[in-house]
Design a protein that fits this description.
The structure is a single chain. By secondary structure, the protein is mainly α. The chain is built from six helices and no strands. The chain has helices at about 10-20, 25-35, 45-55, 65-70, 75-85, 90-100. Helix 1 packs across helix 2 (about 25-35). About 0% of the residues are buried.
Length: about 100
């Protein structure tokens, strides 16, 4: 059990001691009962609030497994091979400029 020390106003301490005496309990028991009666404070982590926003806003949708497979990124070596075949190793910006006749 943890131990906590608190400073109480004299009037509150007197009230708690009076209640303890009338119920034939210790001051500690009365204080623990009162603290135990407080409503539980549920944490509201930021991550849960973001997830709720994503679910309820209508701005986002879940991507299906089929879409994930269809649009899965190619490995880096495959991308280099495609770029070499299509662009002969040149940057796409150079090819666009050449196609526009600005080169």
């Amino acid at each position: 059990m943890s131990q906590v020390t608190i400073n109480l106003p004299d009037a509150l301490q007197a009230q708690l001691e009076q209640q303890a005496a009338s119920e034939q309990k210790s001051l500690e028991e009365v204080v623990l009962e009162r603290l135990g009666a407080l409503p539980a404070v549920e944490p509201d982590p930021l991550k849960e609030r973001y997830e709720e926003f994503v679910r309820t806003s209508g701005l986002f949708r879940e991507v299906s497994e089929e879409e994930k497979r269809r649009y899965q990124a190619l490995p880096e070596d495959a991308l280099r091979e495609i770029a070499a075949r299509l662009g002969k190793g040149r940057p796409a910006s150079e090819m666009i400029i050449e196609d526009r006749g600005e080169w």
